[in-house]
Amino acid sequence: EHLKKVDILIFAIQDLGCKTYTYIWTMAECMKAAGRLKIPMIILDMPSIHGLSAPDGPLRQEKFKSFIGLYPTPYTYDATEGELARYLKHAEKIDCKLYIIPMHNYRRGMTYRETGLKFRQLSPNIPDLNSALGYWVTGPLGELGLFNIGLKMGVSFQIIGAPWLNGRQMA
To answer: Rounded to 5 degrees, what angle do the CA atoms 135, 90, 84 make?
Structure first.
C-alpha cells in the first residue's frame, strides 16, 4: 500500500555481512514488493564491513526460516549487498527489475577500514566500527540471554561477560 505512488525504490543501507543482521532481508522484501508493483529497484552497493573472504557457517535449514534467516545463506556470506541481491533475485526467483550501482575503487577482500570511508552509526546498538566488527561473534551469544555483550555500556558487541564465567579459563 505504501509503495503504490512510488516510481522507483532505492536501497542504500550498510549491511554487516551476517544473516542475523536483518537489513538484507529488508532488502529482499523490498525487491519482492517492487517486483509485485513493477517498480524498478536500485541498490547502491556498499563495502563489506569485514572484507570479503569466504562464507562461514551452515546454510539455514527450512525449519528455522525467520526474519533472521529468510533465505538459506550461511551465517556470514562473502558478498556485497549488490552481489547478494543479484544472487537472491536468481536463486529465489524474485521477479523485480533490479539495478545495482557498483562501488568505485573497491576490491574483493578490502575491509571497511581500508576503504577510507567514514563509518556511520548503523543502529543504536552499532554505534561504531568496533561494534560492527564484534557483532558476528557476540551477537548470537547475546540472543541467548546468558551473557552481557556490552549493550548500553558503550562497548556493544565488544565484550562477553557473565557472573559465572571464569575469565582466566576463557582467556
So the answer is: 20
